[in-house]
Amino acid sequence: MPDKETLADGDTGFIGVNPRMDPASLKQGMASDAKNVIFRNGVAETRPGVQKPAWLNNIKPESTFKEINPWGTIYGAGTFKDPNANEFVLLAVDGDVYFCRENNDPRIMSLPTGVKVLEDVTFTQAFSKVLMFRGVGLAPLVMNTLDAGFVDLVDHWSSATTYTASTSEVAHGPWKAITSITHSGGTATVTTTAEHGYKTGMDITVRNAVETEFNGRFNITVTSASVFTYAGGTGTTATGTITCSNQQDYWKADAGYSASNEPGVTNWTQTGLILPNADIAEFIQNRVVVGTSYNSTTFNYTSQKKDFLFATDILDHKHVFFTSQFRINQGSDDVLVDILKMNENQLAIFKTKSVHLLTNFVVTDVSTGTSGLESSLVLQTLIPEYGASGPRATVLVGQDVYFYAGRRGVLSLRQTEQGKVQGVDLPLSEPIQPLIDRIDPRHEGKIRMAYMDNRLWVAVPLDDGSDGNNCILQFDFLNRQWSGRYDGTAIRVKEFFKAYFSGSERLFFTSEDGFVNLLGESDHGDEVRDTDRENNIGVEEITTSITTRGYHHNDLNLRFFKTARFSVGTWNPQFSASLVMDGANERQSLVTDRTKSRTNYYRPFDQAPWVTSNVNGDHDTPYREDYTSDISPSEDISLVTEGDDTMLTEGGDTLLTNQVSGVFPGTDFNPFRFQETQETFKVATREGRYGQLELTNNQGRIQLKQVILTTEAGQQGTLVKS
């Protein structure tokens, strides 16, 4: 009978997800949801895992030569290419800075006396140097060579140094009065006369104590608005007219300078033409550009909000000029959060409530007159209504810029064919708006973005973001679709950065747990900390899930769902599948925790089980259920001497080792080969408007390739489904 005609609906491939639309309205190839899945070549597959490279992590104690440990707190990461094109990764961790290179141990770099890195920093390479920006409270440091390490951008004034009149520049002051310094247990406690305005981690210079051991440059811990401590001193109390400073003021020697003249006293003039303190920076047209709150007229950072841009002179990483200072959107109540180089003469400027474009950066050797940047640059407001959520929540993709704009989601700036830049008001993230709505607005400033491998990566704090970015949203530019989300214990993104690994540029991220991670490297699970393992690194299985679109027939009649079939590729799987109907909680389990044997064959039925050592060289024999190999330790065995005597430890215990199952690789041994099967299920009759297949996998890897649901005609007319 025509009413009982069996019809089928399904997908022969998958390209992305769209959780916003009604499942029955999605086009072929689209899924309603996906977790830990990549979509490539029409297949939805478990994502590759996260790896923790030893050369980028803490391998102390070095005596074991085995352990891979977290650093503790990672305050910044960047890359440096020396004049010979050798690339190094720079890591600011636990107060120190390291440089790292593949297949080498991390090496610590020198810092100025008393300096520790205990706040987030930004590394920016300019020419053959690297600038480390340490925020508004601390002056930048500069690295000229790896061996020399980081030094002050401008040397601190010293009474023991003779300077050059009309030329020398120094950092000196402002000085704050100290009421008292007491000492106990190796710690000096400083009380200032007024509120000091310092933060923990700053390096502060103390001078004029009669007991000279209290004088010097120290890293401080703030305990109150007028008290801080530092490690030092040997007495109980310091005496004298003692002062302290973070050395943020800059001075230039006058023509009448003579030896030992002190800045602020005689023959020095305060200058606002030194690159100011900042936390965001870019290198464009041989200039360093920073965003800051510094006012070069009043020489302070407190009277203005952060909406100034300062650009250094060409081929100069230290000096700025009055004609290279700009205020962005003066009078607005938003502040600068990021700047991004779009090309060689365009800089995108992101504030919290607006987006701007600075164009026409020119190459000139004169910045002190009217031919400087001020005469060439053009500032254009692209978006006046909204801006970026925070630093590095912006990324360049080809000629376009993408950024996260709060509840609006991911938006873009695009260049037209005429080279004009304009904002695109339709969010790229519109198809995944339900996920955008789950982002914790309290922690939007932590969101980070990156572009690699034709994909946009957006690290976000989903649901409760107290522990940072616990999820990565991914947009695939090849499919022009979103690929769902990544999560797991290893996904705790603090900052993305790119570096070369095994000959190609790869995407890394620092995490809140103190590890440096490589994305998309492991063929089996995510590497996580496991102190029960010899190297302290274990493997966490990746939980994969995908929910297809709603399969139905192109009419308004309800359908009876009869069978479900799906084609999967599997590698050591443990998968479950359910049929999900359009009604509330209407779900039918099709299979639960199905695994595959690595020794049994589908056919012939009497095939002898595969020998796991592959001693017969038959690993590639067709029709086996699973092609993984187990080479993990099987049991402890005792060690013996050549004379067959049991070896003992110094304590008299039997010396044990792990016995490992041997494998003979042979010529066709491929332990990462997928087996493909078609799984078929008869459905206990369910009636509804549409049905979805929900597939989950809790170990190994799985590939979903095709899905088909068959139906027969259901109720028609005005009856209400119940």
Describe the structure.
- The chain is built from one helix and 55 strands.
- It has 722 residues and is mainly β.
- Strands 16, 17, 18, 19, 20, 21, 22 and 23 form an eight-stranded antiparallel beta sheet that branches. Strands 1, 4, 5, 48, 53 and 55 form a six-stranded antiparallel beta sheet that branches.
- A hairpin with a 7-residue loop joins strand 12 and strand 13.
- It is globular and about 100 Å long.
- The two termini are 25 Å apart.
- About 1% of the residues have low confidence.
List the keywords:
722 residues; mainly beta; single chain; 8-stranded antiparallel beta sheet; 6-stranded antiparallel beta sheet; globular
Summarize this, please?
Strand 28 (about 310) and strand 29 (about 320-325) form a beta hairpin. The chain has about 725 residues and is mostly beta strands. It has one helix and 55 strands.
